Amino acid sequence: MKHFLSFQDVPDLSQLITSGIVAKRNPFGDQEMGKNKTIGLLFFNSSLRTRISTQKAAQNLGLNVIVMNVGQDGWGLEMEEGVIMNGDKAEHVKEAAAVIGSYCDIIGIRSFASLSDREKDYQEIVFQQFKKYAGVPIINLESATRHPLQSLADCITIEEFKLKERPKVVLTWLPHFKPLPQAVANSFCEWMNHAEVELVVTHPKGYDLSPDFVGKGQVIYDQDKALEGADFVYGKNWSSYEHYGQVLSSDPSWMITNDKMSLTDNGKFMHCLPLRRNMKVADEVLDGPHSLVIEQAANREWAAQAALREILLGMK
Ligand SMILES: NCCC[C@H](NC(=O)CCC(=O)O)C(=O)O
Ligand SMILES: NC(=O)OP(=O)(O)O
């Protein structure tokens, strides 16, 4: 694998899931693989799980790790070409990416959506520019439109906990007062479209995700109906794609409670975290026997290890 930016980069999903499960059983089996190589992890936005799990996975593979909060500590980076740099950005990505690429063999980047300009966000300019100018493999640590390491961890978690050959997986919108990106939901749909599952997506009207991501997922606007018989309930808030970046509703009746979970087929609850308790999901669900959120977050380490292993194999 040359880069890990989206599902398109994955040569074989089931092999990648298996690689994650193998890493979980034997974390240090490939410790020689990353020896004398360095990964740089660049964060333009906050992170708990991605930062620690990717660092840990890289160390399990013997890689040296450099983490930088570029959003806080670095020079403001200009991403556009040919502009007069007389604003607040002191450095151009052309130099910054090339310089970081000279220090690091792999670069991981987190850069969220602006939620103000849909066309620009969906062009993924930060990732395209680093890919163009760094000269080394680029790993997506959550971009404007996708979060593939999360989606891979979700696939591993579903594989571990599924009780049916083809489980019903329901992605449900959850209420939140802040506008959040579509990245996690988009990416989850993208990966579920290639997994052995029945995908249903439910949200209030006006929250339709880009059809490019929903794919063959069935959209049902009635949450109760969508949840019927679900094996996995995957919660996430996102802001409107159509009315880009807007919060159109924070209807509390969309919060996941035990009553909602009782509509499922003894379903498990999943969420990428962080999440706001009793806004999006009730305590009773998170603290109850059906929540998988901790197992899911723990699997981020093995997802990152599987992806990094594939990148290292591609560098040989
Ligand atoms: N990396 C996981 C999700 C990150 C981000 N959540 C957030 O920004 C939550 C912020 C808050 O609840 O204030 C998102 O939805 O894409
Ligand atoms: N799920 C996830 O990506 O968490 P962080 O934002 O804490 O990395």
UniProtKB/TrEMBL annotation:
It catalyses: N(2)-succinyl-L-ornithine + carbamoyl phosphate = N(2)-succinyl-L-citrulline + phosphate + H(+). Residues 2-160 form the Aspartate/ornithine carbamoyltransferase carbamoyl-P binding domain. InterPro entries: ArgF'-like, Asp/Orn_carbamoyltranf_P-bd, Asp/Orn_carbamoylTrfase, Asp/Orn_carbamoylTrfase_sf, Asp_carbamoyltransf_Asp/Orn-bd. It is an enzyme of class 2 (transferase). The keyword Amino-acid biosynthesis applies. GO terms for molecular function: amino acid binding; ornithine carbamoyltransferase activity. It comes from the Bacteria. Keywords: Amino-acid biosynthesis, Arginine biosynthesis, Transferase. Carbamoyl phosphate binds at residues 47-50, 75, 110, 147-150, 272-273, 300. GO terms for biological process: citrulline biosynthetic process; L-arginine biosynthetic process via ornithine. NCBIfam families: PRK04523.1. Belongs to the aspartate/ornithine carbamoyltransferase superfamily. SOTCase family. This is N-succinylornithine carbamoyltransferase. It comes from Dyadobacter jejuensis.
